[in-house]
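We store chain and fold; thus.
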Amino acid sequence: MWPGPDVSIRDVVSPQLGARTDAMFRQAGTPTLRTVDTDLELLTRLRAGDEEAFVTLVARYQQPMLRFARAYVPSRAIAEEAVQDTWMGVVKGIENFEGRSSFKTWLYRILMNRARSAGAREYRHTTSETHHAVDPIRFDENGQWADPVERWNDDTEDRLDAATWGPILQSGLEDLPARQRQVVILRDREGLSGDEVCGLLGLSTGNQRILLHRGRTRLREILESQIVKA
């Protein structure tokens, strides 16, 4: 059986594995995974007390979780605290996971609550989504694109160099209104479906779609302006 509710990560894993887990919390790069176990398989092993399963889950989700937490908090340090607190929540609440959603969605829901709490302690309450993130002329009277947006093709010879444009996109992402930023991160970086994002953030299908379109288009505008300057 899994340890009781007062268990800590250090109580669960051996000192050697604990050190590895702590290193993952600190490092900037994405760890290389040696297994392709599904989340469900890892959860089954974790419930049986398999320490390596926990370390593998941390390696798999640590960096995506940090990116998502940054949508709620003002600094990486606070994001790291929220993520570590989330893993503690996973350890304590693993027996409560019933599989009604994917493990990833369940994990991000815990993280969202932790990050919101951390962000609330740092931010003064403010909302600032009154400006148009996208030129309204780009939408028709039904809220659809006036002109279809051309898909970016990763295989084209003139695709953007991620090393050059990544920082520009990251800066633009951080400047998006909070809800747009969260939706774009979850859909385009973390690969959640529209339904999963709606359930996680409490959005209607229409609102999720609008936020995603506006966030994507704003980032596209930023790139277009930089390309012109270049």
DSSP finds ten helices and no strands in the chain.
